[in-house]
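Progress narrative, work stream C.
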Amino acid sequence: MPETKESLLKHYVPYQLKEGEEYMNEAQLEHFKSILNAWKRELMEEVDSTIHHMQEDAANFADPSDRASQEEEFSLELRTRDRERKLTKKINETLERIEDDDYGYCDSCGVEIGIRRLEARPTATLCIDCKTLAEIKEKQLGS
């Protein structure tokens, strides 16, 4: 199987901030573009792998248990790919935000999201404070 997002994080080098450096300058934007594009590439490789795996392993088992096991395996894989499809969409939206010069700032309050938070979650659109508040509200409404 191709490597997952975890493998991407093993190979990327955290951005080294320079004193007095402007937030979301060209170097920082390029750093995040490369992370997002690598992540997207890995997701696309996963999709190709799934298609190949399902074509190769698709068998019409006579035994109902074997058939059910294979169907469950394929179902789990397809659910994973659906989540990855949604993530790919979010990555594309994030790349558009970079192109539109709108990346790195909170959608809710407008403050800087921060380099380290964006490295942990490159598709983040909220600063940690607004995200925490949103999660608290979600929990209150969900109860």
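Work stream C, second folded protein:
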Amino acid sequence: MNQDIDFVIPWVDGSDPAWIEEFNKYCPEDKRIIDASEKRYRDFGLLRYWFRGVEQFAPWVRKVHFVTCGQKPDWLNLSAPKLHWVQHKDYIPQEYLPVFSANPIELMMHKIPGLAEQIVYFNDDLFLTSPVRKKFFFRNGLPCDSAILNLPCTNQRVMPHILLNDLYEINRNFCKRQVIRQHPVKWLHPKYGKNILRTLLLLPWPNFPDFQNPHMACPYLKSQLEEVWSHCRESLEATMRSRFRSNGDVNQYLFRFWRLCTGDFFPINPGIGKKYFELSGDAATMVRDIRTGKYKEIVLNDAPCDDFETRMQMIAAAFDALLPQKSSFEL
């Protein structure tokens, strides 16, 4: 547990006129041109609270690798001791740039210079809101995770074709029956609770149909990512050539599914200390739980709502009540 752990978070300021101009310049006909006036591409300032949460609630983190296309918030302190500002060009080969899809950005994160072996990958809608220890993410040198089967394509947080591409690679490289026989305790662990029933019901399915895939910060071993690259290079390189999300893509879930099949993880209850919120949900509950720090980690997933701007302002105020002090990552 004394091993270094790094955090990785990619970010884009979708309201930046220069970024929008470049996006629209490369945007193919079957993609949607971005209008700079669209609310969901505005920056509501929540990123600073992500950094404050990391400093306040995970002070043990060694480095934060902040990944952008070259953008940086005006308030970001590039001299912060734990900050590593990473531009896409620092680790993604020039032949794949510029890129406007998260998938290639994620797939090569193991190439970030100076990255620790143990990493936790965040999206910018995932926040720490109360103290977490290293064992929240890693135990016995392994990522904490839950091996739970799911019905095909019931995970609506990713586009179904990407999930199917991930599963194709998994089933091409692993035999479901053999995997579960080799690691029965990790697939039917008591900590999974009622989720075990879901796995038992899907055991007769000949291949891996899907995995329960919570949208939360995901711990990885850098060596696990390298292993997947050694077996699935063709699919990964095809995704790297996609500047925009395409039907042939795989994504970082392939790394997670792979380690579930190899058994290189520590079983945990998937729900303890975590909460998933839709922005269109109960705003009062969302704001209350942020203010009180009820959970260790929360997700604020985007969803259509008529009062989007008002809700974002309420959320920002709740974060400011929880984390009012500037972090060392701020000027």
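The CA atoms of residues 136 and 144 lie 7 Å apart. No further action is required on this item.
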